[in-house]
Amino acid sequence: MGFLDSILGLFSLDLGIDLGTANTLVAVQGRGLVISEPSVVAVRKGTNQVLTPGGVPAVGDTAKIMLGKTPGNIEAIRPMKDGVIADFDITEVMLRYFINKAHGGRYFSPRPRVVVAVPSGITAVEKRAVKNSAMNAGARKVYLIPEPMAAAIGAGLPVAEPVGSMIVDIGGGTTETAVISMAGLVTSESIRVGGDEFDQCIIRYIKNEYNVLVGDNTAEQIKFQIGNAMPDHDIERLVIRGRNVQTGMPREIEINSQEITEAFREPVTAIINGIKMVLERTQPELAADLLERGICMAGGASLLRGLPEVISMETGLPVGVADDPLTCVARGCAALLEDLDVVKQILDCEGN
Ligand code: ADP
Ligand code: MG
Predict the structure, then answer these.
(1) Which residues does ligand 1 sit against, CB inside 6 Å?
(2) Tell me: the pLDDT tens digits for 229-262?
(3) Residue 127 C-alpha to ligand 1 middle, in angstroms?
(4) CB-neighbour burial class of residue 1 (10 A; exposed 0-12, middle 13-18, buried 19+)
(5) Model confidence over 162-179: pLDDT tens digits?
(6) Other beta carbons within 10 Å of 161
(7) Euclidean distance between CA atoms 141 and 329, whole angstroms
(8) Which residue minimizes the CA distance to atom 16 of ligand 1?
(9) Mutual orientation of helices 88-103 and 124-136 as an angle, nearest 10°?
């Protein structure tokens, strides 16, 4: 690290950013988590002109409320939705908004260094786009860290040691599975199935079984309330509202948790297969470590009832969920800010 950088480092408040498919979290060095908002931007349709109702840009919380409720000329976009950057310009707008919100308004403060966790599956072009966006948004230096690495650090796994740790981070759009040893991803796999897919399964199931359409936000609420990845003796019921496909009229129906478990079968299988694929590619010595140390889950969807249990059953490994799994990645990034030498070690492993 250069001398100038060390001096600037004394004054600047560096940022750690979890640029997630569902939520973006920002941690400020020494202050912890300061932002946690949905990765959503509302724009005028067909443009990347962000709406500014009441002078405030419609990004994050303000924009998520609009999902599925916008009139024809407005669009609420999730630019990272499937773990790839669907729209570079809008991703940049979003990143800039969050960086300014976390860092802006300071009278004297050098431009921050920023550690951004990105899905491990993104392409070199996408990486460059994220890096440029963060620079344009005011960063002095940008480090990109693979999301499973940040999650593992946030979960407190001994990533730098010569011992195998497995992290399964299930977010909105992706499931990122990795085996980590000596600050590197030994094997990893990113599949485009995550919490959103569970919501879509609920929507399809209710449409097929009851001829009723429910929106994304309603489906997510159903998942939170009675979602279960594993068959359970206790059956929970819930009355939900949607629109009848044939008559077009609003309707109320009752569904139960067993039906939801049934609806979840496909994505649960996909996630388990992704994990098994990584296990099969893991060297025997590391696999032996995993048998003893088990799998650590992170990401919002690790909170889905029954999911850790079913993964443990199918893999034969112990499975635990990290403390506060939704903030693991951001906390991992923040921890890295304190120790940029480790960042360099990780980036060396990554071949950057
Ligand atoms: P990303 O990193 O992709 O932004 P997150 O880690 O923030 O994603 O997780 C978001 C996903 O987690 C969403 O699909 C959300 O519905 C799901 N989720 C959050 N809390 C819960 C919960 N208690 N039960 C089930 N799913 C949850
Ligand atoms: Mg995530």
Answers:
(1) 20-23, 171-173, 194-196, 220, 223-224, 227, 299-301, 303-304, 326
(2) 999 889 999 999 999 999 999 999 999 999 999 9
(3) 23
(4) exposed
(5) 999 999 999 999 999 999
(6) 13
(7) 19
(8) 195
(9) 40
